[in-house]
Amino acid sequence: MKIILDVDPGIDDAIAIALAHKWPGIEILGITTVGGNLPLEKTTDNGGKILKLLGANYKVYPGMAQPLIRELKTAENIHGPTGLGYAQLPEGKEYIADKHGVDFIIEQVNKYPKEITLIGVGPLTNIATAIKKDPSLPQKVRGICVMGGAVFTQGNVTPAAEFNIYVDPESAEIVFNCGAEIILVGLDVTLKVLLTREHLEIIQKKGGSLGESIGEMTKFYLERYLDGNKLPGCALHDPLAVAVALDKSLVSMEKMYVGVETKGELTRGATIGDKLSRFNKKPNVYVCTQVDSNRFLELFLDRILDHTN
Ligand code: BDR
Ligand code: CA
Protein backbone atom coordinates (compact mmCIF):
# COMPACT_ATOMS: atom_id res chain seq x y z
CA MET A 1 0.00 0.00 0.00
CA LYS A 2 1.21 3.52 -0.80
CA ILE A 3 0.75 6.31 1.71
CA ILE A 4 1.35 10.03 2.08
CA LEU A 5 1.50 11.25 5.65
CA ASP A 6 0.27 14.80 6.24
CA VAL A 7 1.70 15.97 9.56
CA ASP A 8 2.48 18.87 11.92
CA PRO A 9 5.31 17.47 14.06
CA GLY A 10 4.63 17.68 16.99
CA ILE A 11 5.62 14.79 19.25
CA ASP A 12 2.88 12.30 18.46
CA ASP A 13 3.28 13.17 14.75
CA ALA A 14 6.98 12.32 15.00
CA ILE A 15 6.13 9.00 16.61
CA ALA A 16 3.48 8.39 13.94
CA ILE A 17 6.09 8.89 11.20
CA ALA A 18 8.40 6.42 12.98
CA LEU A 19 5.58 3.89 13.26
CA ALA A 20 4.70 4.18 9.55
CA HIS A 21 8.38 3.96 8.64
CA LYS A 22 8.70 0.69 10.51
CA TRP A 23 5.46 -0.82 9.22
CA PRO A 24 6.28 -3.72 6.92
CA GLY A 25 4.90 -3.90 3.39
CA ILE A 26 3.96 -0.27 2.86
CA GLU A 27 5.52 2.44 0.73
CA ILE A 28 5.74 5.97 2.10
CA LEU A 29 5.81 8.29 -0.92
CA GLY A 30 6.51 11.38 1.14
CA ILE A 31 5.59 13.48 4.15
CA THR A 32 3.70 16.74 3.73
CA THR A 33 3.78 19.32 6.50
CA VAL A 34 1.20 21.85 7.59
CA GLY A 35 1.03 24.69 10.11
CA GLY A 36 -0.58 23.23 13.23
CA ASN A 37 1.12 22.27 16.46
CA LEU A 38 3.77 24.82 15.45
CA PRO A 39 4.22 27.22 12.54
CA LEU A 40 4.98 25.56 9.19
CA GLU A 41 8.68 26.39 9.23
CA LYS A 42 9.13 24.41 12.43
CA THR A 43 6.89 21.48 11.49
CA THR A 44 8.86 21.20 8.24
CA ASP A 45 12.25 21.38 9.99
CA ASN A 46 11.07 18.77 12.45
CA GLY A 47 9.92 16.57 9.56
CA GLY A 48 13.44 16.77 8.09
CA LYS A 49 15.02 15.93 11.45
CA ILE A 50 12.81 12.89 11.90
CA LEU A 51 13.47 11.56 8.40
CA LYS A 52 17.19 11.94 9.04
CA LEU A 53 16.87 10.06 12.32
CA LEU A 54 15.02 7.27 10.51
CA GLY A 55 17.40 7.24 7.53
CA ALA A 56 14.40 7.62 5.22
CA ASN A 57 14.47 7.34 1.42
CA TYR A 58 11.58 9.81 0.98
CA LYS A 59 11.25 13.54 1.58
CA VAL A 60 9.32 16.27 3.36
CA TYR A 61 7.14 18.57 1.21
CA PRO A 62 6.16 21.82 2.98
CA GLY A 63 2.50 22.67 2.55
CA MET A 64 0.12 25.33 3.83
CA ALA A 65 1.25 27.69 6.59
CA GLN A 66 -2.18 29.03 7.57
CA PRO A 67 -5.67 27.54 7.85
CA LEU A 68 -8.02 28.34 4.95
CA ILE A 69 -9.55 31.46 6.49
CA ARG A 70 -8.48 31.67 10.12
CA GLU A 71 -5.39 32.62 12.07
CA LEU A 72 -3.22 29.65 13.00
CA LYS A 73 -3.41 28.47 16.63
CA THR A 74 -0.46 26.39 17.79
CA ALA A 75 0.12 23.95 20.67
CA GLU A 76 3.64 24.50 22.01
CA ASN A 77 2.17 23.96 25.47
CA ILE A 78 1.85 20.24 24.64
CA HIS A 79 4.82 19.73 22.29
CA GLY A 80 7.38 22.23 23.64
CA PRO A 81 8.95 25.29 21.99
CA THR A 82 10.75 23.18 19.35
CA GLY A 83 7.82 20.80 18.91
CA LEU A 84 9.89 17.76 19.83
CA GLY A 85 9.87 17.95 23.64
CA TYR A 86 13.31 17.38 25.20
CA ALA A 87 14.82 15.79 22.06
CA GLN A 88 17.68 17.66 20.38
CA LEU A 89 17.91 16.21 16.91
CA PRO A 90 20.43 17.10 14.19
CA GLU A 91 19.08 19.24 11.35
CA GLY A 92 17.79 17.33 8.33
CA LYS A 93 17.50 20.14 5.76
CA GLU A 94 18.63 17.80 2.97
CA TYR A 95 15.34 15.95 3.42
CA ILE A 96 13.24 19.03 2.64
CA ALA A 97 12.04 19.06 -0.98
CA ASP A 98 11.51 22.11 -3.19
CA LYS A 99 8.01 21.08 -4.25
CA HIS A 100 4.92 22.40 -2.38
CA GLY A 101 3.10 19.78 -0.29
CA VAL A 102 -0.25 20.41 -2.00
CA ASP A 103 1.29 19.96 -5.47
CA PHE A 104 3.04 16.82 -4.28
CA ILE A 105 -0.26 15.30 -3.11
CA ILE A 106 -1.97 16.15 -6.42
CA GLU A 107 0.95 14.85 -8.49
CA GLN A 108 1.22 11.53 -6.65
CA VAL A 109 -2.51 10.81 -6.53
CA ASN A 110 -2.74 11.37 -10.29
CA LYS A 111 0.32 9.21 -10.85
CA TYR A 112 -1.07 6.30 -8.78
CA PRO A 113 -4.88 6.49 -9.06
CA LYS A 114 -6.76 4.45 -6.42
CA GLU A 115 -3.50 3.31 -4.81
CA ILE A 116 -2.74 6.01 -2.23
CA THR A 117 -4.11 6.37 1.27
CA LEU A 118 -3.72 9.90 2.61
CA ILE A 119 -3.20 9.97 6.36
CA GLY A 120 -3.91 13.41 7.82
CA VAL A 121 -2.83 13.90 11.42
CA GLY A 122 -2.72 17.70 11.56
CA PRO A 123 -5.19 20.42 10.54
CA LEU A 124 -6.60 19.38 7.16
CA THR A 125 -5.51 22.47 5.22
CA ASN A 126 -3.22 20.65 2.76
CA ILE A 127 -5.73 17.96 1.85
CA ALA A 128 -8.59 20.47 1.52
CA THR A 129 -6.47 22.76 -0.64
CA ALA A 130 -5.47 19.83 -2.85
CA ILE A 131 -9.17 18.96 -3.30
CA LYS A 132 -9.99 22.58 -4.16
CA LYS A 133 -7.19 22.65 -6.75
CA ASP A 134 -7.99 19.23 -8.21
CA PRO A 135 -11.64 18.28 -7.62
CA SER A 136 -11.00 14.83 -9.17
CA LEU A 137 -8.71 13.93 -6.27
CA PRO A 138 -11.35 12.31 -3.98
CA GLN A 139 -12.21 9.77 -6.70
CA LYS A 140 -8.54 8.97 -7.20
CA VAL A 141 -7.42 8.31 -3.62
CA ARG A 142 -7.81 4.91 -2.04
CA GLY A 143 -9.01 6.61 1.13
CA ILE A 144 -8.32 9.35 3.64
CA CYS A 145 -7.66 8.49 7.27
CA VAL A 146 -7.90 11.48 9.60
CA MET A 147 -6.81 11.94 13.20
CA GLY A 148 -9.32 14.47 14.34
CA GLY A 149 -12.59 15.21 16.00
CA ALA A 150 -14.44 14.08 19.06
CA VAL A 151 -17.81 12.73 18.04
CA PHE A 152 -18.98 11.18 21.30
CA THR A 153 -16.48 12.63 23.77
CA GLN A 154 -15.52 16.14 24.84
CA GLY A 155 -12.89 18.05 22.93
CA ASN A 156 -9.34 18.77 24.02
CA VAL A 157 -9.03 22.46 23.02
CA THR A 158 -12.55 23.44 24.02
CA PRO A 159 -15.27 21.23 25.49
CA ALA A 160 -16.65 20.97 21.96
CA ALA A 161 -13.63 20.55 19.72
CA GLU A 162 -10.50 18.53 19.10
CA PHE A 163 -7.34 20.45 18.12
CA ASN A 164 -6.89 19.47 14.43
CA ILE A 165 -10.50 20.26 13.54
CA TYR A 166 -10.65 23.34 15.77
CA VAL A 167 -7.63 24.91 14.02
CA ASP A 168 -9.12 24.62 10.53
CA PRO A 169 -12.81 23.64 10.60
CA GLU A 170 -13.44 24.87 7.05
CA SER A 171 -10.83 22.45 5.70
CA ALA A 172 -12.27 19.60 7.74
CA GLU A 173 -15.69 20.30 6.29
CA ILE A 174 -14.33 20.13 2.73
CA VAL A 175 -12.50 16.86 3.41
CA PHE A 176 -15.40 15.16 5.21
CA ASN A 177 -17.75 15.97 2.32
CA CYS A 178 -15.40 15.27 -0.58
CA GLY A 179 -16.83 11.85 -1.46
CA ALA A 180 -13.70 9.77 -0.72
CA GLU A 181 -13.76 7.02 1.89
CA ILE A 182 -13.03 8.93 5.09
CA ILE A 183 -12.08 7.25 8.36
CA LEU A 184 -12.18 9.46 11.43
CA VAL A 185 -9.85 8.43 14.24
CA GLY A 186 -10.98 10.88 16.89
CA LEU A 187 -10.53 11.39 20.62
CA ASP A 188 -13.29 8.78 21.06
CA VAL A 189 -10.60 6.18 20.45
CA THR A 190 -7.24 7.97 20.72
CA LEU A 191 -7.80 8.78 24.39
CA LYS A 192 -7.97 5.02 24.96
CA VAL A 193 -4.46 4.30 23.70
CA LEU A 194 -2.24 5.64 26.43
CA LEU A 195 1.51 5.31 26.67
CA THR A 196 2.55 5.06 30.32
CA ARG A 197 5.86 5.62 32.16
CA GLU A 198 6.42 1.85 32.04
CA HIS A 199 6.09 1.79 28.24
CA LEU A 200 8.44 4.75 28.01
CA GLU A 201 11.08 2.94 30.06
CA ILE A 202 10.87 -0.08 27.75
CA ILE A 203 11.29 2.13 24.67
CA GLN A 204 14.30 3.90 26.21
CA LYS A 205 15.93 0.66 27.30
CA LYS A 206 15.33 -1.49 24.26
CA GLY A 207 14.78 0.93 21.38
CA GLY A 208 18.40 1.80 20.50
CA SER A 209 19.09 5.34 19.29
CA LEU A 210 15.58 5.79 17.86
CA GLY A 211 14.17 4.69 21.22
CA GLU A 212 16.35 7.24 23.00
CA SER A 213 15.08 10.09 20.83
CA ILE A 214 11.47 8.96 21.05
CA GLY A 215 12.00 8.70 24.81
CA GLU A 216 13.22 12.31 25.04
CA MET A 217 10.24 13.56 23.06
CA THR A 218 7.71 11.44 24.86
CA LYS A 219 8.96 12.25 28.37
CA PHE A 220 7.96 15.90 27.78
CA TYR A 221 4.59 14.93 26.25
CA LEU A 222 3.86 12.48 29.06
CA GLU A 223 4.59 15.14 31.70
CA ARG A 224 2.05 17.49 30.06
CA TYR A 225 -0.56 14.71 30.08
CA LEU A 226 0.09 13.65 33.66
CA ASP A 227 -0.11 17.31 34.77
CA GLY A 228 -3.07 18.44 32.73
CA ASN A 229 -5.36 15.58 31.89
CA LYS A 230 -5.41 13.39 34.97
CA LEU A 231 -4.89 10.38 32.70
CA PRO A 232 -2.43 7.59 33.55
CA GLY A 233 -0.49 8.15 30.29
CA CYS A 234 -0.21 10.21 27.11
CA ALA A 235 -2.50 9.64 24.15
CA LEU A 236 -0.97 8.18 20.99
CA HIS A 237 -3.38 10.11 18.75
CA ASP A 238 -1.44 10.26 15.50
CA PRO A 239 0.20 6.81 15.76
CA LEU A 240 -3.28 5.28 16.16
CA ALA A 241 -4.46 6.98 12.96
CA VAL A 242 -1.48 5.49 11.08
CA ALA A 243 -2.19 2.06 12.53
CA VAL A 244 -5.91 2.22 11.64
CA ALA A 245 -5.13 3.29 8.07
CA LEU A 246 -2.95 0.21 7.74
CA ASP A 247 -4.96 -2.27 9.82
CA LYS A 248 -8.66 -1.48 10.18
CA SER A 249 -9.23 -4.53 12.36
CA LEU A 250 -7.85 -2.55 15.33
CA VAL A 251 -11.11 -0.58 15.58
CA SER A 252 -14.87 -0.79 15.23
CA MET A 253 -16.43 1.86 13.02
CA GLU A 254 -19.87 3.25 12.29
CA LYS A 255 -20.66 5.14 9.10
CA MET A 256 -22.69 8.27 9.72
CA TYR A 257 -23.05 11.87 8.62
CA VAL A 258 -20.53 14.02 10.45
CA GLY A 259 -20.91 17.79 10.19
CA VAL A 260 -18.29 20.30 11.29
CA GLU A 261 -19.36 23.40 13.20
CA THR A 262 -17.85 26.39 11.41
CA LYS A 263 -20.10 29.12 12.76
CA GLY A 264 -20.59 28.44 16.46
CA GLU A 265 -19.15 30.71 19.09
CA LEU A 266 -18.74 28.07 21.79
CA THR A 267 -18.68 25.14 19.39
CA ARG A 268 -16.15 26.07 16.67
CA GLY A 269 -14.73 22.87 15.19
CA ALA A 270 -17.17 20.51 16.89
CA THR A 271 -17.71 17.27 14.94
CA ILE A 272 -21.39 16.43 15.10
CA GLY A 273 -22.06 12.76 14.38
CA ASP A 274 -25.64 12.13 13.29
CA LYS A 275 -25.90 8.61 14.61
CA LEU A 276 -29.70 8.58 14.41
CA SER A 277 -29.92 10.27 10.96
CA ARG A 278 -31.82 13.28 12.30
CA PHE A 279 -30.36 15.58 9.60
CA ASN A 280 -31.42 13.13 6.87
CA LYS A 281 -28.05 13.48 5.19
CA LYS A 282 -26.04 10.82 3.43
CA PRO A 283 -23.44 9.24 5.77
CA ASN A 284 -20.04 10.62 4.81
CA VAL A 285 -17.56 9.34 7.39
CA TYR A 286 -16.58 6.09 9.08
CA VAL A 287 -16.28 7.07 12.73
CA CYS A 288 -14.05 4.88 14.92
CA THR A 289 -16.06 4.03 18.00
CA GLN A 290 -14.01 1.32 19.77
CA VAL A 291 -10.36 0.32 19.74
CA ASP A 292 -8.53 -2.80 20.82
CA SER A 293 -6.10 -0.80 22.96
CA ASN A 294 -4.01 -3.73 24.14
CA ARG A 295 -3.47 -5.06 20.65
CA PHE A 296 -2.58 -1.61 19.36
CA LEU A 297 -0.08 -0.97 22.16
CA GLU A 298 1.55 -4.36 21.67
CA LEU A 299 1.80 -3.82 17.95
CA PHE A 300 3.10 -0.28 18.46
CA LEU A 301 5.87 -1.40 20.82
CA ASP A 302 6.80 -4.33 18.57
CA ARG A 303 7.21 -2.07 15.56
CA ILE A 304 9.04 0.73 17.37
CA LEU A 305 11.44 -1.72 19.06
CA ASP A 306 12.07 -3.66 15.85
CA HIS A 307 15.71 -3.17 14.89
CA THR A 308 15.54 -4.90 11.53
CA ASN A 309 14.44 -1.86 9.54
C1 BDR B 1 -4.02 16.21 17.80
O1 BDR B 1 -3.58 17.52 18.15
C2 BDR B 1 -2.20 17.62 18.03
O2 BDR B 1 -1.65 18.37 19.07
C3 BDR B 1 -1.67 16.21 17.99
O3 BDR B 1 -0.50 16.14 17.21
C4 BDR B 1 -2.79 15.41 17.38
O4 BDR B 1 -2.71 15.39 15.97
C5 BDR B 1 -4.77 15.63 18.99
O5 BDR B 1 -5.87 16.41 19.29
CA1 CA C 1 -0.69 16.07 14.82
UniProtKB/TrEMBL annotation:
Keywords: Glycosidase, Hydrolase. Residues 3-298 form the Inosine/uridine-preferring nucleoside hydrolase domain. GO terms for molecular function: purine nucleosidase activity; uridine nucleosidase activity. It comes from the Bacteria. CDD domains: nuc_hydro_IU_UC_XIUA (cd02651). Gene3D superfamilies: Ribonucleoside hydrolase-like (3.90.245.10). InterPro entries: I/U_nuclsd_hydro_CS, Inosine/uridine_hydrolase_dom, IUNH, Ribo_hydro-like. One of its GO terms (cellular component) is cytosol. It holds the Pfam family IU_nuc_hydro. GO terms for biological process: purine nucleoside catabolic process. PANTHER family: INOSINE-URIDINE PREFERRING NUCLEOSIDE HYDROLASE (PTHR12304), URIDINE NUCLEOSIDASE (PTHR12304:SF4). This is Purine nucleosidase. It comes from Anaerobranca californiensis DSM 14826. The lineage of its organism: Bacteria, Bacillati, Bacillota, Clostridia, Eubacteriales.
